[in-house]
Every structure is written in structure tokens, then in C-alpha cells.
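Allow me, if you will, to draw on your knowledge of protein folds for a short while. The matter concerns a single protein, recorded as an amino acid sequence and a row of C-alpha cells. Could you please explain, in whatever detail you think fit, how the C-alpha cells follow from the sequence? I remain grateful for any guidance, and I place the record below:

…
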Amino acid sequence: MAGLSDPMRFVKAEEFFTKLASANGPSTLVSAQTSMSNDPKDPLRYAAILTFNEGSTCLFQFVTPQMWRIRFDPSAKSASDYSDENSRTIVQNSFADLVDELQKQLRRKDKADNAPTAPPDSCWATTFGESSDQTGWVLSSVRYPSQKDADAGTNGTVRVKANFRKDPFQIQCTKVVAPQFSTDTTIAPLGVTTSNAEKVIWQTVPARTFVQSGQAPRATNIALNVVKPGPAQYLGFGEQGGQSVVKSATLMNYFCYDNFNYVKVYNRGPLDTREPLYHSQPFFMELNGTPGYRNVNATLIDNYSQVLVDLGYSNSTRVALGVRFGILDAYFMSAEKVPELIWLFTSIVGRPRLKPRYILGHHQGGYGYTTRGQLENVVSNYRSVGIPLDGLHIDVDFQHKYRTFTSDDGNFPDVSGIFANLRDKGVKCCTNITPIISFDGYRTNDDPYPTINAAWDQNDHTNPSKNFLVMDKRFLDGLGSPSANDQKYLRYDNGSAEETYPNSDNRPTFNSGKDLYSFSDNFNSGYPFHGGVSYGDDLGIAGFYPDLNRRVVREQFWASQYADLFNKGLEFVWQDMTTPAVAYCYGDMLGFPGRLLVSTDPYEQDPNVMPPQKTAIELWALYSYNLHKATYKALDNLPIRKGKRNFIIGRGSSTGMHRFAGLWTGDNASSWDFWKINVAQVLALGLGGITIAGEDMGGFARGSDNGLWCDPDLFIRWYAGSFLMPWYRNHYNGKQGQKLFQEVYKFASIQQDYPQYPIPDNQRDLYASVLPICKYYVRLRYSLMQALYDRMFENLINGLPIARSMLITDPYDAALINEAIPFLDNQYLLGHYILVCPLVDPDDSEGGSRTIYLPHPNRWFPFNLRIDQGPDNVGVPLNTPVDGGSHFSYNAKITSNPAQFPYITPMYIREGAIIPQIEVRDYVGDPSVNPITLHIYPGKDNWYSMFLDDGVSRSSAPLHLPQYENIGQPQDSDAKGEYREVRIDQKTSGTSRNITLSHIHDNYDPSTQIGQTYRIVIWMVAERDNNGHLIPLSPPPTVTFEDKQGNEVPGCSDDYRADIGATIVTIPVSLAPGALVVTHSVI
């Protein structure tokens, strides 16, 4: 690459859109053609090819009746020029298979509740014709009651009309939509229509739909301009979703970048949405684009390279979607509400397979755990203070000479014994696996390195079947000079573009010494690409990289490397440096050189033949995607892992990686800004189908104060505020010169351990509060572990995240896209029922208070559950519920008084909620019996599904899900549906509440885990006397137990607890299969 002068490079969004402002594109539509064929091989099935005045074309394809795909390739002249092969982003290999699979999914009787409505016998097709005013053509998606109707073209209902206007060219999509106000939500105001109407739901900018300004040799620089309705609100945007869930006018750069502290390109930190971050997922939603009507849209740009978004920044009336390389390929979808959009989106990018339950536990990681003693000390200290711990994350300190897949027998003697000892204490271990392969130890008997020996045969280095490394071959077209001596690499650092000469002497000096290789000799030689990775300061290693875009490398080489560590007892993988995060002088933008040729990963590959190649800049995100995929497949096929669920926590990839791994959001710091974006980031990623996501609690690096440990106020807020987030890991840089500690228990012994750093008198109480408050919230999380797991299991079915934005749970609350927008950034729900309202500002700035908004129209109870303190303690009495739509100030000041711990993070419970709670154990999977208590709250009718299984086996997975039986994919033989789904329904009938328990799916006996009985707590809002004491009900409530036929069921018991205002019911688990109805005489 030739640095800033080379068109084959990353460009900032400002530069990209400024140049495209004067660019041209097709202005007039000349013709539109379709096919009425049902042949999957016909590229115009459910599609239209649009031909423009200057000869270019656009392919418009319906994916489902309410989802369409638009592809624009300036070089394509016909529909056959557009490939049927999908990118790896999409869950099906071919577009035809995707369409047919979704047709089947929509007709299933057992599809998720948030899936679009479609009767089992129905089908859909398209119609095509000239518009009535003869200004263009119309392609419509039509749903028919049956295939017979579709064949005859009768009884069809138009879902979406795509109008293609000739001059000026424009695409305009319309749909019949329901009014926002209707009888099933609230009373319509006077003068507001309650009738359905056909409305424009999406449209492009006339005469500027596509603009393009290609740059030789391969930069295409295409933008699609979409009309931005004035009242519309936008949210999602993947990892870039930080700072605010709903985005105002801004620019965004999607480009996987090792962006330490989020300051590389613009130097403004985590609150700047323009920063390209580790993970590229250009997916977002549009709400209120059709004011007064129920319609929400979503957009996915499918491109491995740089994607750029101008969200009304340059022009408030449009959203511009840009790509630097390749074609413009985008999916658009329309639904009534956000949960339905999530189902549609995850139906094309996939949903994950079942993850082990323990990943929802509390995890501790540290860069700087360098000995066996340190690991064992961390675990023993957490156990001694009573804080549950499930995962221990060991960084590259674990490796021998920074060789991937190795362990240091000197500092970590008897690795099998270490893992076994920690596993006996309930702690599962993972270690950092990076994609670099050190060439140290190649073909030598002196300290050999088996991985490099398996990766490359120097004597037969051109044979693809024996060489699994990325080779140094460059694309040199368009360079001023192809000489190695004239090459430069580009990166951004602290807001400035910097060019690096790979031949220079300023290469990093690693702990093993200066990397003195000859760049000139290796450049474009066909020998392995010589790179290197920096782990900070002088720590790191030079080496090669596996060619993971080749299937044979993933399945033959990479897969075999995990066996040794997992045979020794490693439980899961921490995938790091994924982009692949090379040191500054080895490549562009801390990744591969942009002009390095890498494999394209076609679906059909011969292991003995090198597949086609493109430049690394064109396929930028594909490498990290395949890294996670290769690891996931490797673990699944290890004999030692047979039948066990596997897990990867990864850093940085692209849309679709969630099928293989969870995501942590990279190297953050101990700052309030990073804590502020934590909630928004996780919620934004959840909208895009990522189940397990989160930040490093407490911050990985030092904060702006350069402190030796995390500020205790910030640390408490982080731990207490994210306690129901999906990923709950404390991780920090503890290397020399960095942080001294970040383990929770260490805050209690600072004065003893570090007397040279005295604590100010006015902060002693704050420091003393860290351990007990964090302990309280970790334990509270563990008491709600069943609720967390239920949402993770449910995600397999409906794609909905564990931690949810209020826009998912309360889609008809108009305030959430108006005056209540700020609350979307710092409030979230566990599933549907528990609302968490963290404090994201220091106590000294806001006095320990925050304003809370409760979603409309439900009422909300102040959170009344507590961690277990004995068999009789099920919670505190319910207070009077607060109306939805209310906003008010809440005092949550940090204090060392244990009675106030439950209020340090404000929480509320939705009326009608059903919440499972268990006893706290030291770790998930503790073999002792742990009974389930079901808390049932008064209010609106509701239901809940609880999923019981062993938490670790693949056999628990439901059989019917598409991720286990996809077209073209082998069915997972381990999925056997070995789980129990317990459905709990609550309905009010007159003055009584009926609670029904039934086993919807019953292929697992959980009695060894949960015992023989369910305990049900039926909460009531009791009146209080003038002194605030509960007034006992007289007469007390009565309870009856009946089966579905109305026959009385013996063996059940009830106890009215006047002291807490609840009735406690105990029923044998064995009675539930046939549906047991508990009738409570008081609502």
C-alpha cells in the first residue's frame, strides 16, 4: 500500500461523502423486467431487474413479503450478472435457498410469537405490471391463503408494493398499515383515524438513488440515498450504538479496527459515534417514519469492507448508505413493531445455538495473571468473601513465548492439574487465543513449536494442501511504484493519520528482541506473510497468520490445534486480536496490508487448489468472522467435547459472528464515559441479534485520571448497574505500570496491601462499600439465574436479546420516540418484566439521584425481591404500583448501610409479572438441589416460559429450529430436545386469579436439580394502617387446586403470609404436566 495516496485504503466518512456529493449515478429508468417462474434458479423469481439510462442495472428482490434486497453493481448488465451465492453474513449459502427456507419458516405452526403472521397453508408470490399512471412499474409481494390460490392468482393480499419510477428514477415502497391507536392498546383520540391505510413506508431520493465515483483500480465508492422522514428516529447500529440508543444526525464508519480506548481516528473517546470500532455490524432500525401508523423499518448493508453511513448529517432529508469496495448490497424490512423486525433480521443472519448456562455467571479476567498461584488465589479469595464466580480468563501470560495454543510449564506447571483444581471449585477456565503463529520453533528439536510445523512446509511452500498460512502476494495495480522500498502502511492514532515505512528501523522491539526480517525479500514473494502482534510495551511476537478464509485451513489445521489445551481441561475460548490486530509497522489500520491478497472463501473449494483471491481491504471483516467460525467448528468436533456446548467470547468481527461467539466490545478504560455507553452498546447489539455482549466491567485500561485502580464510585455503579446484562466480566490490565488490581475483594484491603497509597478520610466509607455492595448485586444476579437462562434459551427461538430496550418490550409507548428518548440510553429490561435503571454519573455530580421513566401503559411495582436469607424470606411487601408514563427522581446514593443496598440500582417489576428465583450458589452447576420459587404479581394477564435442562449438553437443543436443520447444512445429531418447557399463565377472572402451570415440552426430568416441588408466591398489594403496617386480609385468601378437567388435586399446600402480603403455594413438580390450575380468591 502507498499510504494516504493509495485509493485502496480506509477513508473517513467525511471525505467519502464529500466526494460523492458531486458524483453522478443513474437518473432515468429505461426498463424493468421480471419473471413469473417459480424456478429457484431463475434470478428474476420474486424480483425485477432495473436497467438505467447509462446501461447499469439494479436487482430488486423480495426475500419475504415484507423484506426486500437491493443490489447495485455498475458493471452488471443483466440479472445473470448478479450471483445467487450469498455472503457469509447470510445464514443460507444461496439466495434461492434463503427465500425457500423463509417461506417454510413463516408457515410453521410452532414459530416464535414475534414472527410475522402467516397461516400454515399460505404462501406468497409476486405480481408485476406497469403503474396505473404509466410513470413506471410495480412489483408487489402478495400473500395467498393456499398454493392453489397463488397458482390461480385469487384471494391474495398485497403486503408491499415496490414502485419503480422512470424519470426521475426512484424506488418507493408502500404498505397497508394499521393506525397507532386501536382498540387493543388504548382509546383513539377524537379526530384520529382508526382505519388502515396504504402509506409510503420507504423510498429513495429521486434522481439520486444511486451515486458512484469509482477509483481505479478497485474502489467502487457507491452510495444509496434513502429519504429520511422528518419525525423518524433511528437506533441500532451495532457496536457503534454507544452514547445513545437513538441517533441524531451523525456519520459512522464501519471498519473492524483495533481501536484501543476508542480514540484512534477522531481522538474524542467513546462518546463519538464516528469512531470505527472492533465490530462491524451496519444494521439499524427506523421508527416513526410513518407517523400515526404502526410501521418500523430496518436496514442491513452486507459488505465485508468499509461501510459508511450519513444519518442526516450532510442533508437532514436523507440517509446515505455507502460502500468503499464491491457492490451495494442491502436488505430492507418492514414490520409492525420492533420484536417482529428482530425476528425478520435474525431469520436471514441466523440465531445462535445453545450456549452453556455458566457463561451467564460472574467472570474475572486479568492481563497479568502470570502464575498458577495467582489464579488459585483469585478463586479462593472470591470464595472466601462469598461472591459467586464461574469463569476465570487467563491472558497471553499463559503462553510459552507468546506461542498460540501453548502453555508456560514454568509459571503454570501441571496445566491439567490447575484446570482440574479450579473446576472442582466450580470455576471454568478460558485462555486468550490469537491468530498469530510464531515462527519461533520451526523445524527444530530445541524447544519445537508443533503449530508452526503443522502450518507450513517450507520445502513445498506452493502446495495448498500442505501450506495453511496467508502468503505474501500483493495486488500492485495502480501503485506509483511496485518496489518494496516505496511501500507505506496507513493507520490512525490519536486523531491523526500516520504513515509507516515497513522497511524502517522503528519496528517494535519485542521482549525477544528486534524483528530484523528483510521486508524487501519477503514482499510479494509467495512465502508466508510476515506480521507481528503487540500486547503492549515490548510484549508481543512476530509471526505468520493462518489462511482462515480457506475451508481446509479451518477444518484441518486450525481445528487440530485446540486438542491439547482442551484435553488438559480448558473449558471455553477467549478469541482476541481478531481483526487480526497486527502491530503498527506490519499492515494497514492495524490489520493486514490493504493490498495483500487473501482467499475469498467461496462455497465450493478444492483443498488442493488455491481459491480465488481479493485484496485484504476488500474482504476486511471476513477474516475475523472466519476466525470465530473456525474455532466454533473446531470445538464442536473435538472428541473431548462430544455432546458438550461450547462458547467463545470474541472481540471484533462482522454481522453473523453471533452464530459462533459472544462479543465483548474491546479495550475500554475506567471512565464514566465508557460506563455511560455500556448500556446503550449492549442494547444496540441486542437489537441486531447478538445474545451475549458486554464491556469489561470496571474498564480494562486506566481511565483519564490515570488511576492505579478503578474509581470506587464508578466500580460500584458498573457492577450494580450491569448486574442483569448478559455478559458479566471484570477484566483489567494488571501488567507492570498499569493497574494494581480490580478484583472486587481487593478494595477491602487496599490499606493493608498498598499502604503507600493512603485513602482520604472522606472516601473511607465509599471504599468500604465496594465489597458488600458488589457482593449483593452479584448474588442477586445468581438468584435470578433461571430468568437469565430462560431468556438466553428463548433467544434461540425468537432472536430477542436477554437485556432488552424498552422499544422491544413497550413498542406502543409513543413517549419512547419522543420526550422519553433519553431514558433509552440508561434503562433496560431483563426479558419483559424486570426494569433496571442504572446510575451513570458520579455521586458527587448528581447527588446519587437519577430520573426514572416507567413505560406506558402498564403499572410498575418497586422491586421487592431479595437474595436468599433463609427458607421464609421470599421478599419484602409490595408497595403501591406506579403508573406507566411516570417520570420521577429516585435517590440511589451509595451507602455502607446494607438496608439500602437494594436501592443503589433502582429496579421495577411490571404488573402481572412472573419471575423465577433460585437460591444463591457459589457457581452455576453446583450439584446441590436448588428449588425454584415463582413470583406472581398482580395486574394484567400474562404468561412466562421457563426452560429446564442440564445447562451443558447439546442434547438439550430444540429439534425444530432452523439453526439445527438448515438447507445445505448437516442436521445437528446432538440436538435431541432434552429439556422441559414449563408454561405459567396468569389470568384474572372476576375477583380471582387463575395461575396455570403446564409442561409445553417435557423431555427432561430436572428433579435432581430443582427438587420435587415448585414454590409459588402470589403477591398482593395489601392496605396499610396509619403507621405503615400491613393490614391482614380478613378473611384470608382461599386457594384451590384443580386439573384441566376441574377435578380437585391433592398434595398441594398454601400459606397466607400477612406479614408480607402474599400467599405461598407449594405444588409437586409431578402434578404440572397435565396442567395444574391454582385459583387464588384475591386478585
Remarks:
- The mean pLDDT is 94.
- The two ends are 72 Å apart (CA to CA).
- DSSP finds 19 helices and 55 strands in the chain.
